[in-house]
Write a structure and sequence with these properties.
heterotetramer, A: alpha/beta, Rossmann fold, 44% helix, globular, B: alpha/beta, seven-stranded mixed sheet, five-stranded mixed sheet, binds thiamine diphosphate, binds magnesium ion
């Protein structure tokens, strides 16, 4: 397989992986066996897959409340993720964390935590230590548009730029913070990417639903970081299809319109790239179907694993209070 | 006119009536005007009072607290709402250094009438960062007042008092209380800040409880009654100023004390209650008091890990029975059969 | 007196007032009767006098730890200020606050507090309330270069711009935060004013030691705010002559050079403007000397007042715990 | 080899030796490498260890805490320094939600070995926002450890333990202690976190003190001795985990307790000590214990307003005498003649 093709397959596979898992969670959530909040990222797969695909296995990712896509794109263990969401002993955090606290250190997924903005400086700190230890690894920090209102965002950008750290800030601007549109939160006289640029940082804005654009930009950013040329900020425009938290569609509750949703729905990052594979890159559809099919099986296995795994003993709650 | 409404409706009504009565009252917070309206407590308010007085805000907890302070010293009466106390930790500097101190340090020249509503306590798998009960952090700070209404009646009456108070008031609302009902008057009324409520009288032991733990304490009282013990249940309602008199009088009568708090034990609210009792009615204490509170580790997410995390009525009753030298039976700790422990008990519905 | 001349006299008077008071404090501080930290603003008088001179009496000012100049420029009561620093009952905060908590509500000086950045959102909140109450007053918020590193700065700018509030942010960039130079705190790939501009705010940078430049810029900003055209940010370059906290010179302790100090010393904002009055505006020196002399007397009177005022009764400590 | 050095020197030596011993230890904080060097505790460190390991930082308390956490989970051992606890309030979110919880909520996969040094307590007219003693806010949080060294010996030994500990440790240093001297070994040694120290034995009453109040307690002990009372003085040293055993054993022996804390009273450290004693040695208590702590209002600035604000040895002694039913004389409250109360007592110089 040519390098180009390899990348193409990888990008599609990751997007497909995220989509499949998230759809499965949405399907099963009403059974009330996943007893924790879930923030699905369906619609945002390109930004997540494309950027993580630019990283090496031993590079780092850190995320917030909407982290499934980042975890999966970085190669996080699927069984451990589902088991965690199901609250099982085999979960990646032993059931202590749930959907909002995924972790897989084997693939550099440092962790996730749902206090908006709080993992940004932690990611910067990892990058600082990594640089000191001369690991030549890159830290990718995922954040949403809401974070651009928070002080910690600016403080962290200031520091990353000042200390010239190997950090890529990936902002997925999906237009909403919970049910709040941009215009009640941020002045329309500027863009988020402008804020980052003002910190003196190399900053970019691009279509986050085009996985190849994402991959290209983040690959350049990775190169820059790897060369010790400091942090990069990238804002990707994208859209979350389902409700902020939970498995449902919610265009009916009034904070956004069905029309707006449909516009973005047509720009389905997974479907768009799939068509491109067939029409432009002349993939055989069966090839794609096979990728999809294999992964569907994996997801079903993982669900089975998660459901069948034992709950942790309640005494596990007292483990790891202090190191 | 009194009718049965829920806690969340009582909170909304309090805000609604205060906004009608005083044009300086306004509400802001993340999601305040959104379709969920902070568990329904702010639903419909923006439609009624306009986007000038009922506002969504940027995600900037620290700054928005400062903004509330600045508007308060200009005579406004902000109600700032945080969907979780965990988020409010971002604003501790403004709350502790500024809001709590401007009246004092400017020798009375400024008043800071403001209410900060914060949601505490457990919910569906909220886990370590979304379900804390950090009341003692606020209760420790002079210059703040701290309320924790349990019933819908108190929710309305205390929130009105808080909005009308000329000081910064922290209001802590336990998630599982929003659906509790109570008989609530339609008209405006005040429940005084700083007064505990004796919910049930008793002579054998005093149970002092905060917020949701008051409901568990009422259940514990029933369990105790079945076992021949007559407990007095006091809902603390306000942490600062604390109604030490009601507590002391009760312990003087019963000679025994259990404190049931929604927060952690060490350096928590329960410690202060014990200290106050010790300082004031030492000589009437018949046995050592007990603290029933969260263990000293963070809240895990999986329900399987929470069974022993949140103390229930049985734990309160057991503590009482032990003090009285009575047998503690296993039935006290029986798990409910109709629900998992990560969902509220539908039997706790009120009125109280 | 022509308007122009009136303004000129006013600007010089305010600068002279600040300089005279601060020098007097520096002179008397070693007596150890002012028993609280003092952050003198000698060297920064132009930025402070010029900007406050653009305000109406009923406009607002709020400040931080280095607030003497702002308080005096806004017309704050001198006796009450000195008495406060001396810890006396007649102090503007009854002795509760000291030098770091000046207040004079009669002239719109809302207050000061020394947690860096914390009065910024409070000032924004005052402006918000003032706007709601249709007062048509302007809020001027003073801040230092250190504040540009703090999250609350950005959060506040975001909000002021979003809500279109009548706020003028005046940043006195004196190159240091305590003993720390800019380059250990902020990237050299950007200026502070760029940060503000990125928030979509009307933003300016100017020489803060030229009181006329300051006055002109802030007057324009006041006009804009008064017209409901939203907030303005202005960064003024300037320099603090004496130590961060306390009455002494400290060029010997190693964090900055005597040379640097001398360069700024030559750009003494008070002396420069005084020369201009005589050379360009043809003031009679005696006129100026009279202003200076009268004020020196006032300061001596105020010191006398402060020293002779009684200490508050210790029971006053229990006043105003709750409203 | 032991020699007499000051508290600030002991802290510097602890950091110095830890940095020599472990290249993962680093120091950062506002002003750390500046000419004042955080009361001398970091002076000369940058020259020795370089600007990569001893760093000034931007004014961004919240973010720098996160940065410390991130570096800690990568195996570094940050020492983050705040010139005042009041500033650290900006970082409560990172401290409470993140630092304290990452080890637990990730099921042990991360360790967060970090030390946050914070300065507490009064100074020359520092007033309401620059002199708080907010230890109970941290002591309430599971996942943190909290130390408050009083003597130079403990300052060094506890800080070394803290730096070597795999958990986040909050170290609170009272401003007035920096100049206190003690016999301090030159070599590295550890004072275990979680152990109180019986500074002086006694049989009539137990005085449990924190930080600077330990010095006042030693003076109080002398006053008591003169009045025929033999007090035991315990320096708590660590708040979390708390050495309840030492306290309980002492109170079992004396039957009486005074707690002297540098913070506010309500919901403060002293409440927890009372609660623990009550729960564990109720039956041995001969009288109600007393709390000697800051009154429940902010710190005023003018020295004239502070005379009654900060409790002194005499107040501790008086509380003890009252418990023992002995007369309380005016001499106990005599103001010093050699200094104003806003300056440290030069007689508190050690060694202890
Ligand atoms: C500090 C803080 N404030 C508020 C919240 C509540 N909250 C959870 S997710 C969220 C939305 C954040 O929006 P954005 O950053 O755009 O991410 P998205 O959900 O769109 O992926 C908010 C406000 C929080 N978790 N943390
Ligand atoms: C939140 C906070 N962190 C640290 C400090 C300590 N501190 C007091 S003044 C100061 C310097 C601020 O520098 P700048 O904003 O440039 O003002 P300047 O002193 O130069 O006028 C610092 C860091 C503080 N007061 N508040
Ligand atoms: Mg978003
Ligand atoms: Mg400066």
């Amino acid at each position: 397989m040519s390098h180009k093709k390899e990348v193409t397959v990888k990008l599609y596979s990751i997007m497909n992986r995220i989509r499949t898992v998230e759809e499965k969670i949405a399907e099963l959530y009403p059974e009330q066996e996943m007893r924790c909040p879930v923030h699905l990222c369906i619609g945002q797969e390109a930004a997540e897959a494309g950027s993580c695909a630019a990283l090496n296995d031993d590079d780092y990712v850190i995320s917030g409340h909407r982290s499934h896509g980042h975890y999966l794109a970085k190669g996080g263990d699927l069984k451990a993720m589902l088991a965690e969401i199901y609250g099982k002993e085999t979960g990646c955090a032993g059931g202590k964390g749930g959907s909002m606290h995924l972790i897989d250190l084997n693939v550099g997924f440092i962790g996730a935590a749902p206090i908006v903005g709080s993992t940004i400086p932690i990611g910067v700190g990892v990058a600082f230590a990594s640089k000191l230890k001369k690991e030549n690894r890159v830290m990718m920090i995922f954040l949403g548009d809401g974070v651009a209102e928070a002080g910690v965002f600016h403080e962290s950008l200031n520091l990353a730029q000042l200390w010239n750290l190997p950090v890529i800030f990936v902002c997925e601007n999906n237009l909403y913070s919970v049910y709040s549109p941009m215009h009640v939160r941020q002045p329309d006289t500027r863009r988020i990417v402008d804020l980052a640029a003002a910190h003196g940082m190399d900053s970019h804005y691009a279509d986050g639903n085009d996985v190849e654009v994402v991959y290209q930009l983040t690959s350049d950013a990775v190169k820059k970081c790897r060369n010790g040329q400091g942090p990069v900020f990238i804002e990707f425009s994208t859209y979350r299809w389902r409700e902020h938290c939970g498995p449902n569609f919610d265009n009916d509750i009034g904070y956004r319109t069905e029309d707006e949703y449909q516009v973005w729905r047509k720009r389905d990052p997974v479907a768009l790239f799939r068509s491109k594979l067939i029409n432009d890159y002349k993939f055989d559809e069966s090839e794609i179907v096979k990728i999809e099919h294999d992964f569907k099986d994996q997801v079903n296995d993982a669900v089975k694993f998660a459901k069948e795994s034992p709950f942790p003993d309640s005494s596990n709650a007292e483990l790891h209070i202090y190191a | 006119m009194t009718r049965k409404i829920k806690y969340f409706e009582a909170l909304r009504e309090a805000q609604y009536q205060c906004m009608e009565a005083d044009k300086d009252v306004y509400i802001m917070g993340l999601g305040v005007p959104d379709p969920k309206g902070i568990f329904g407590t702010t639903t419909g308010m923006q439609e009624k009072f306009g986007a000038d007085r009922v506002m969504d805000i940027p995600l900037a907890e620290n700054t928005m607290t400062g903004v509330a302070i600045g508007s308060a010293l200009k005579g406004m009466r902000p109600i700032l709402t945080h969907q979780r106390v965990d988020f409010a930790l971002l604003s501790m500097e403004q709350i502790i250094n500024q809001a709590a101190k401007w009246h004092y340090m400017f020798h009375g020249l400024h008043k800071i009438p403001m209410v900060i509503r914060m949601i505490i306590g457990r919910g569906w798998g909220q886990g370590p960062q979304h379900s804390q009960s950090l009341q003692s952090l606020f209760a420790h700070i002079p210059g703040l007042k701290v309320i924790m209404p349990t019933t819908a009646y108190d929710a309305k009456g205390l929130l009105i008092s808080a909005i009308e108070d000329d000081n910064p008031v922290i209001s802590l609302e336990y998630r599982w209380l929003y659906g509790i009902s109570d008989s609530v008057p339609e008209e405006m009324y005040r429940v005084p800040i700083g007064k505990a409520r004796v919910l049930e009288e008793g002579k054998d032991i005093t149970i002092v409880a905060t917020s949701y733990m008051t409901l568990e304490s009422l259940r514990a009282r029933e369990m105790l009654q079945e076992r021949g013990v007559n407990a007095e249940v006091i809902d603390l309602r306000t942490l600062r100023p604390m109604d030490t008199e009601t507590i002391i009088n009760s312990v003087k009568k019963t000679g025994r004390l259990v404190v049931a708090d929604t927060g952690h034990k060490m350096f928590g609210v329960s410690a202060e209650v014990l200290a106050v009792v010790l300082e004031n009615t030492f000589e009437r204490l018949l046995n050592k008091p007990s603290r029933v509170a969260l263990p000293d580790y963070p809240a895990p997410t999986s329900p399987a890990l929470c069974d022993d995390y949140y103390p229930r009525a049985g734990h309160i009753a057991a503590a009482a029975l032990e003090q009285l030298g009575k047998a503690v039976d296993d039935k006290l700790f029986a798990l409910p059969t109709d629900r998992r422990l990560d969902q509220p008990d539908s039997k706790f519905e009120g009125p109280f």
